Amino acid sequence: MPSSTADKISACLATEGQQFNFPPLPVDIHFGYGAFADLARHVRRCGGKKAIIITDRGLRRTGWIDYGEELLRAEGIPYAVYDDVPENSSTSAVAAAVARLRDFKAEVIVGIGGGSALDTAKAVAAMATNPGSVADYKGLNNIDCDPLPCVCVPTAAGTGSEVSIWSVITDDQTNAKFGVGSQKLLPRIALCDPELTFGLPPALTAATGMDALSHAVESYTSKESQPISASLAIGAIELIGRHLRTAVIDGTNRAARYGMLLGSMMALMAMNSTRCGIAHALAMPMGSGDLRIHHGTIVGMLLPEVTRFNHMAAPERYAAIARAMGAPVAGLTVEEAAPHAVGAIQDLGADVGMPSRFSQFGMREAHIGPVVQAAMQSDNIRVNPRTPEPTDLEGILRRLM
Ligand SMILES: [Fe+2]
Q: pLDDT per residue over 329-342, tens digit each?
């Protein structure tokens, strides 16, 4: 039974002496309470004289955008605001924000918000210097020109977009979500101030927190997991297991919000080099078309069933996850402990109020075939610890209908 950190990392190694790559993470991270107050200094450090803030209208109501504007004004930095980012960012939102940036001749992008706002800000930074539509850059490593500098300020602990090589955007032409992945999409600076997450309501805190847990679990158990990503992922699992319940119950608990923002960031740092697994393969089509279910809700609901399917394929890793989440596994063998990961994840989801049925979001039997067909095309299937057949994915979905 893995107990030390070294054991937990070893539980993730495919073979002794594994060769691996951990790609560069050139994001200058400033983390902690009060970090946002330094916004203007960091915008100056990026070298631009004019900035554009990219956010959504919901966040406007929290007062944080007004505060950010005050900080820029106090330093004499002219700025424009694009606050029309939709709940799921879209090709048209990226194009509109790029047009606003060009009109204003902004040289630095400041993304403030949840995953959608930050993914948009990163995409705008790239599309300011690359021709065409963001949809032309689908997939991995298709962006040629260096983007404008981008400062990302997360207001939710979930997507980890502030350290992610990915932006997820919905194509307005096809109504389907797609990912653009590139080292060039990484922001120049991440300002991670846990106080900006205080206003996130309990249901969104739960769903985004379960998204972060899914990144960590799917990265830790990925076939491409390696020692550095594994240490970040298992650390994230411990943090989220310890802090998510409190963050949902008491949104102003400073330790819980700090732990969750740190955990979500570490999970994404791990995921950059490993990709995810079945839950995220299914999440793309389930967040597209006429379904458009909230991403964190999808992966948070799927994760226990995905873990039930996977745990026998990598018992050491799932035993380590069970222990990291505080499951009662002392004295058990690895094989006995691994299934406890299912219960630990299920209990956490239930405690924070995750929904249990996709049917309540309009999903019907007729959706299952097309969703599974699309999910099977995902690269996340290739790295999942157990190779699924389409019927396995159908079974996972039917248990949650
Ligand atoms: Fe996710």
A: 999 999 999 999 99
| pLDDT tens track for 259-293 | 999 999 999 999 999 999 999 999 999 999 999 99
Task: Using the mean position of ligand 1's atoms as its centre, give its distance from the Cα of residue 272 in Å.
Answer: 12
Please tell me the distance between residue 300's alpha carbon and the centre of ligand 1 in angstroms.
9
Rounded distance from Cα 298 to ligand 1 centre (Å): 9
Considering the chain, tell me which residue range(s) the CATH 3.40.50.1970 domain(s) occupy: 35-192
Confidence of residue 10 (pLDDT cuts 50, 70, 90): low
- Measured in angstroms, how far is the CA atom of residue 331 from the centroid of ligand 1? 33
Residues 259, 108, 39, 294: what is their CA dihedral angle, to the nearest 10 degrees? -30
pTM for the full predicted model: 0.95
Q: CATH 1.20.1090.10 residue ranges in the chain?
A: 5-20+201-398
DSSP 168: E
Burial 68-88 (b: 16+ CB within 10 A, else e): beebbeeeebebbbbbebeeb
Domain 5-20+201-398 fold: Dehydroquinate synthase-like, alpha domain (1.20.1090)
Q: What are phi and psi of 159, to 5 degrees?
A: -75, -30
The domain made up of 35-192 has a fold known as: Rossmann fold (3.40.50)
* CA 208–ligand 1 middle distance (angstroms): 8
